[in-house]
Amino acid sequence: MPSIFLRRFIVALVAVIIPVALPAGPSLGLPAEIVVSTRPTTGAFPLVAGDSSAPLWYDAVDWPGVIRAIRDLQEDIKRVTARQPVASAEHPTAPVVVIIGTLGRNAAIDALVASGKLDATDLRGKWESFVIATVAQPMPGVERALVIAGSDKRGTIYGIYELSEQLGVSPWYWWADVPPKKRAEAYVLPGRYASGEPVVRYRGIFLNDEAPCLTGWAKEKFGGLNSQFYTKVFELLLRLRANYLWPAMWDNAFNEDDPENPRLADEYGIVMGTSHHEPMMRAHKEWTRRREQYGNGKWNYATNSEAVQRFFREGIARNKAYENLVTVGMRGDGDEGMSSTGSIESDMKLIERIFTDQRRILAEEMRTDPTKVPQLWALFTEVQKFYEAGLRPPDDVTILWTDDNTGNLRRLPTADERKRSGGSGIYYHIDMHGGPFAYQWINTNPFPKIAEQMNLAAEYGATRIWIVNVGDLKPLELPIEFFLRLAWNPAALNKDQVAAYTRRWAERDFGPEHAAEIADLVGRYTKYNGWRKPELLAPETFSVLNFGEAERVEAAWRDVVERAEKLHAILPEKQRDAFFQLVLHPTKASAIVAEMNIAAGRNHLFAKQGRASANAAAARVRELFRQDQELSDAYNHQLAGGKWNHLMDQPHLGQFSWEPPRVNAMPAVSEILPADHDRFGVAIEGDVSAWPDHFGDAVLPVFDSFNPRRSYLEIFAEGTRPITFTVAALEPWIVLTEDKVPRLDRRFCVEIDWAKALEGASTGTITIEGNRGPIRIAVPIRKATPEQTRAATGHFASLDGPIAIAASAATTSTEVAGVRWEKVPDYGRVDAAMAIYPVTAASILPPAPAPTLEYPLYLPRAGTYEITLVLGPVMDFVPDRGMRLAVALDDQPPQVLDVFSDRTAETFLGAGWWQRFTRDNVRYVRSTHNIAAPGPHVFKLAMVDPAVVVQTIIISDQRLPESYFGPPHTPALR
Amino acid sequence: MPSIFLRRFIVALVAVIIPVALPAGPSLGLPAEIVVSTRPTTGAFPLVAGDSSAPLWYDAVDWPGVIRAIRDLQEDIKRVTARQPVASAEHPTAPVVVIIGTLGRNAAIDALVASGKLDATDLRGKWESFVIATVAQPMPGVERALVIAGSDKRGTIYGIYELSEQLGVSPWYWWADVPPKKRAEAYVLPGRYASGEPVVRYRGIFLNDEAPCLTGWAKEKFGGLNSQFYTKVFELLLRLRANYLWPAMWDNAFNEDDPENPRLADEYGIVMGTSHHEPMMRAHKEWTRRREQYGNGKWNYATNSEAVQRFFREGIARNKAYENLVTVGMRGDGDEGMSSTGSIESDMKLIERIFTDQRRILAEEMRTDPTKVPQLWALFTEVQKFYEAGLRPPDDVTILWTDDNTGNLRRLPTADERKRSGGSGIYYHIDMHGGPFAYQWINTNPFPKIAEQMNLAAEYGATRIWIVNVGDLKPLELPIEFFLRLAWNPAALNKDQVAAYTRRWAERDFGPEHAAEIADLVGRYTKYNGWRKPELLAPETFSVLNFGEAERVEAAWRDVVERAEKLHAILPEKQRDAFFQLVLHPTKASAIVAEMNIAAGRNHLFAKQGRASANAAAARVRELFRQDQELSDAYNHQLAGGKWNHLMDQPHLGQFSWEPPRVNAMPAVSEILPADHDRFGVAIEGDVSAWPDHFGDAVLPVFDSFNPRRSYLEIFAEGTRPITFTVAALEPWIVLTEDKVPRLDRRFCVEIDWAKALEGASTGTITIEGNRGPIRIAVPIRKATPEQTRAATGHFASLDGPIAIAASAATTSTEVAGVRWEKVPDYGRVDAAMAIYPVTAASILPPAPAPTLEYPLYLPRAGTYEITLVLGPVMDFVPDRGMRLAVALDDQPPQVLDVFSDRTAETFLGAGWWQRFTRDNVRYVRSTHNIAAPGPHVFKLAMVDPAVVVQTIIISDQRLPESYFGPPHTPALR
Fold first, then answer.
1. Fewest C-beta in 10 Å: which of A88, A708, B378, B608?
2. How many CB pairs under 8 A join A and B?
3. Is A597 on the interface with B (CB under 8 A)?
4. B528-583: per-residue pLDDT in tens?
């Protein structure tokens, strides 16, 4: 047997080394291909060969959920090969048989184990594990068997779905219309594959904020969030190896809306819970719908505990027959904080009493030791403060830590907390209805960020439960699967494996031909949405004046849209629905919002400058606003024949509070009334003013021979008539060319012919003449001397302006005792950020030697420089420590900078946090440094605490022009 | 002779008491009518009687400017009566003669004085004084003479124009097309009238920032700012009894552009100067046009003093023959600060050297003692800091203090400074191109504010020069005349006389029939523009949510526009041009800008709320934007047959920096795309949210039986189809009526039938039902008990919300040693503000007894209240003192509040000042007060420093809803 099938996945907190170049397997569950063959090979198991399909044999005493999944496998084999195998509890007579079952519930499998033909060491006593193995002569009359054996119910089910996926049925075959990969025959390679146990015991999703989309859709398709709907969800979860669900709660009550819901969940194999604020298996809607039957009707344990207890007890009594993970504790009336009883001390006492009473109810209703009942206490928003103030749940209750609602973990367990028997878990968001802002429309979750944060959770031992808020479920297909796959084995999806994962995902769902392109597209659209979520874009977000920023953003979006549209056109018809919903729609929809805001920003600028083209920019905004609606309509009405109607009902334009907008509102645009004349005006890069009629001089940003760039001026009509003018440069070293890109006004690019320019500082002039003017534009330049060039070579160099360096461009990186700066590929705003690994490394304060990155600089002037570090928006998840770095210029003493030095403003719910960092998706720390002389210097960036992620370093002794990203990266001078 | 003609105006720093109810005279120069009669009466002088017109007799040796003015009088008499009198230096043979001349330059007048027939005591040695008197048998052969005798050239000219004005020729007959009042005959009443001397010696205007309007107009009409243009200006100034001019300088050089300019100025009688930054009678344009001929070409006394001296000397040599008031000192290159020489000390030394050199040049070129040459040093913007740091000009140089560029005096002379021989004056702005913002479009200057500030200047002795920046001259006709009339005799135009003045102005220019209405209209449009200048209005300035604020502002504007349009329609055709430019246009133009911004604010709100009507609000903005342009076009092209073309070229919409916008840009508006459905939504007063689909409850602002008011809810279509719904109140005490005012959506007014409501706090409900809902709106009320009502009667009372009191509604006012709080009628945002008189009273600090206002309060709760005083935006014009008030609740110790406690943020150029107070045209001071029990209290407001102007008092223990004006005034409970 090839060794690949013998390889076992060691699942543990510390990841094993995995070969970086995995074979591009068609499954996202296993890192190995077992159904590669469409031809018979030696020892391969003929699942479907010729006209025949191997029968599926199970044991009638196995879990109904297993037998139900076997029916899915029957269907899946038919979907792929058009041949449906027999599935039966009767011993088949065929020479080749697929034996499927759970250890201890399948006599044939137990016999194989007993006979030594099947190794069960990694099944016995294991959680949710399976083995897929070919067995020759498993029993008399059977030549060859394919065995799918599970350690328990879900283990077997996951094994079944693993085979389905490897055969070519995507977990998303229904939920995203991914067409099964057709094949005439299917052979399973000989060998044995073992899944191992999942790292995270409970892996689930929370359907939340399900109006208007999910509710409207489910009502139209199923008549509501009933068991027809939920069984679709259960099946999806199982195919994704998830096991846990918080059902929709906004205007729904899972257990009441359809009594089949909990029964079928249990049958399918889904562990049910209720959301963080709904204790004891009861939906809050069950309370609000008939609160008057409960005491004083107040959701208040201080004044109405008896009635609330009764409410709790009814929930446990109703659901006790099923597999549950019970939310305990209590928050306020609905998804909000508890009314205070007067002081935090008395509130904590009250919650302690609630814990005690809830445990008593669990014990009484379930007739068991309450420590045997899986429970969680979620520290969502204000709840965490009770914990931090000292309130502790019983040791066996899992503590569910949360993110900051935007994907940054607020807190991870300390070494002491890791000792708790209940362990801890994470409640994460890839969709939010609430503070700091709602993002419910589209997928804005780059994989690298999820991987970076959730690997922290794994490394710090928060692995009992991972549950992610997925809003309406669709269109978050990608991050849902990524999160759940990550939960199975975080170490297998660390920062260095994200790209390969995305590629495998694309290949699984769309085949190998365009997989690289598709992976790149989804990586890019999510990355761009990660810059700033579409709901938070404003006309002034990206600078239309400085650094070509808005145009660069526009170009990035246009590129991915064009590529996605091109692919859409050439993909086979049957793949287009899947491609549209998973790739083209989110790319294009996001791009439209970005372009709309940029066009509005341009409109605002052009109106201020008095350009007649301000009106054309406004018209462009209106056009894009209509396109946005048309694209939503296409999703709702045309995609898959209207199958997903309402799932694009979410308004997403014009958000002005934490809530999503009620309707889409176009970014406001101005207008001007151009008069009947032929006057022209001139605008330049970097200046909101226009000439003539502006008091100040027109001066282009300084040109620097160390960092050659092009600038521009634009000449525009102020009235309705065509304009005539001449543009001329007075110096031979000014290169003026008209831009070929079609724009609303005429742009002339300005570059410097450095060979012709004089060394040192000088200023040239461009003149524009016509029926007004002449208008003079100053062109200031700085050209390095040969001495300066020699001194600056190999350095990040400037003769005038700011220096922006990609953190990953360090020329030196020192490692200390195995702790080192590593690249985090594709993170945030950069190609690769830098962070410390292992992430659990101990903090190091200067003067102790720490892992250090060095950047050689060449600075233009003596004086005071401000250095800005652009960081990932990580939270200070280690209690009372902050998030620190040490920086120094040359051999000056290092300055320790703490991202959270202001614990009030910068931490969760702090004013600074709320207002800026979650929107920008970066944090900044700044330091000032004095240098006595211009020329070569070294910037040193040393670790203090791990988990700080550094994207960019900006060094400037002047105020930076307004922009979102700051100056573009400067390469080192060559 | 009736005593009225014997009354003498005593011109002095302290005003004489003038009867408040002046006869409504047709002249704004004299407070008495002398040409009332169109019929012969006993002793009256027949200026024009029957077919004959009394000849005008002057002396050929009189000033050419006097003789020139007599030709104007000839024309004026003809304009009025259609009969042109003879004017001649030959002794006329008629029995009635008008003798016009200057004491000492007219033999006939000198003879009358010598013979005792004309009393010259108030002419001899006086400045710019005149007497108009009827003299019987003045000389052989003449039965009766009308004598216009001047103390000096301008005295005589002012007398001539006084007669013109009283005859019915407005000073604005040409500049504002005010038609002469026709009469067949004109008799001058017998008697003698003496003008007295002006209080302010030099009274003038500064034509500034004259592009695009004045320049474009003058170029079209006269070919430039040449002597054809300037003689029109000179004549206007003389008719307004002004004598001083800073000519246009932005792109002009008065003395060079037309050499006739200075010669004719002198001939007419205008004292010429140059603006604050143009020393030694030279326009800065004379420098910039050929700076290369002057040394190193730098406008820098430190590096180029010899050349700059030459430039100075040429100016004095050129203009020395004329009457000048020479600007001395030096600022930067153009209207900006001087480049520093390194430190304030060295800069001061340099300016001292400049003074010395300039004086030497004056002495050498004029061959006189330089103390005999009138000179001024203007402390504009940064220049004042040199003075404050100790730099002093020679004692005979007038110090020209300035306002803050928005009409608030920065500094007034101290007692010591009043002793300077050169005295001091004021450079004031009613138009600004510069910081804190440009206002160059339309008249935004309420008379009461000018009167309040400039009377401070008079009372504090800054009376040597008053010069006002008038931008393009038009359309600032009203405040120009008001400022100049005030300069003649400030005490005659104090706060209590403004209304009568405005009325007299309206009667003079439009006749008595509509004078009251016209006076009210111009008072209102300027008051409303004084709330906030049109250039500074933004869609969010006035709250569309709270206190019905935007609607109240809209209603105020609509009322004046309707009234102005109605008047325009009924006025005689010949008055319409004048009425349009002086009343209708500024009213309507200002109203359009206010309404446009309010409509944009409504659009923004409606878009957020998801109202389909957001688009109608946007359409309204576009419509008003076009109306704005059409109205400017009407001014430029239709008014007076296009006579004033270009004077409405000033862009005024979309200002975003200190500069005016380059073109008008419409306030940005949003759009929504209403879908094809009939869903409705509900919005309520005070809440940006809308229902359904909003998380929070819908709760109307609390109703308070002490301050009954109406609230409202609005029901709107979200889609394109008509909506159907029902609205019902669940309690009988809720009175629901549909509003009859046509609006974009349906409004239901909510009032409380207090007789039916329960005492105390309760909450009712309004429900809206239809194809969604029911939507429930809470109606919280507070009804007073009889005991509360008894205790609160006579008090400014609240059961819940804030109390806002007009400062003028004090129930008690104590006077201390003649110092008292007085009403300042029609000031700022209120009907009357309160201020301390006399304004020169000494400061009083507690516990010394001070003039105190008392306001009885009834407060709803114990606890901490914030009291906000809404003040006039006066500056801290007394050095190092601040602007203080003392406040107290009940018998608590008074708190001394200083508007300028933060001297960095709040004074001129301070961050706070720049950002807010000049825009809002108010300042705030706040104090907090604790009370132990609800119920009756007294708020006491005591003087500390004079000149603080108090408009409104707001008392609240809660955060106030967003609004511009704050809560409307609460009347005392009756």
1. A708
2. 102
3. no
4. 999 999 999 999 999 999 999 999 999 999 999 999 999 999 999 999 999 999 99
- Shortest distance between the Cα of B387 and any Cα of chain A, in A, equals 28
A813 touches B at CB < 8 Å: no
Token duo for residue B731: 């309690």
Give B873-905 pLDDT, tens digit per residue.
Answer: 999 999 989 999 999 999 999 999 999 998 877
The amino acid present at A428, given as its one-letter code, is: Y
Cβ pair B528, B558 in contact under 8 A: no
Q: How many CA atoms lie within 13 A of B84 on its CB side?
A: 10
A3 SS3 class: helix
pLDDT digits (tens, 9 = 90+) for A493-541: 999 999 999 999 999 999 999 999 999 999 999 999 999 999 999 999 9
CB of A469 closer than 8 Å to CB of A428: yes
Q: Does A528 touch chain B (CB under 8 A)?
A: no
Give dist(CA A916, CA B887) in Å, integer: 40
- Asked whether the predicted pLDDT for residue A933 surpasses 80, the reply is yes
SS (H, E, C) A472-500: CCCCCHHHHHHHHHHHHCHHHHCCCCHHH
* Mean pLDDT (chain A, rounded): 94
Residue among A629, A656, A671 whose CB faces B625 most closely: A671
Which residues in chain B are contacts of A607 at CB distance < 8 A?
Answer: 654, 663, 665-666, 668
**pLDDT reading at A11 higher than 60:** no
| Mean pLDDT of all residues in B460-477 | 98
How does DSSP assign B290-327, residue by residue? SGGGSTTS---TTT-HHHHHHHHHHHHHHHTTS-B-EE
User: Any CB–CB contact under 8 A between A667 and chain B?
Assistant: yes
SS3 of A751, please? Answer: strand
Contact between B665 and A656 using a beta-carbon 8 Å cutoff: no
Contacts of B150 (CB under 8 A, 6+ apart): B66, B101, B102, B103, B123, B128, B129, B130, B156, B157, B158, B159
Closest to A433 in 3D by CA, of A586, A327, A535: A535
3-state helix, strand, coil in chain A (%, to 5): 30, 20, 45
The residue ranges of DSSP E strands in B538-577, in sequence order, are none
- Residue owning tokens 């990609």: A806
Over residues B811-821, mean pLDDT: 98
What string of H, E and C letters represents the secondary structure of A149-177?
EECCHHHHHHHHHHHHHHHCCCCCCCCCC
Contact A625 B673 (CB under 8 A): yes
For position B5, what pLDDT does the model report?
A: 33
- Cβ separation A607–B657 shorter than 8 A: no
Residues of B in contact with A250 (CB under 8 A): none
Report residue A149's pLDDT band, with 50, 70 and 90 as the boundaries: very high
Chain segment B291-318, per-residue pLDDT in tens = 999 999 999 999 999 999 999 999 999 9
| CB-based contact B662 A690, cutoff 8 Å | yes
Kindly report the pTM of this predicted structure.
0.94
Nearest to B664 among A626, A651, A673 (CB): A673
CA distances from B703 to A594, A732, B764, B779 (A): 45, 76, 11, 8
CB-count burial class (<10 Å; 0-12, 13-18, 19+) for B954: buried
Residues B653-672: tens digit of each pLDDT: 999 999 999 999 999 999 99
Query: Which of B600, B629, B670 is the closest to A673 by Cβ?
Result: B629
* Residue B424 amino acid letter: S
User: CB B670 to CB A690 under 8 A?
Assistant: no
- Residue B36: which pLDDT band, with cuts at 50, 70 and 90? low
> How far, in Å, are B412, B489, B600, B721 from residue B429 at the CA level?
16, 19, 30, 54
Which one is predicted more confidently, A7 or A320? Answer: A320
What pLDDT is recorded for position B470?
A: 98
CB-based contact (8 Å) between B656 and chain A?
A: yes
Are A668 and B668 in contact (CB < 8 Å)?
A: yes
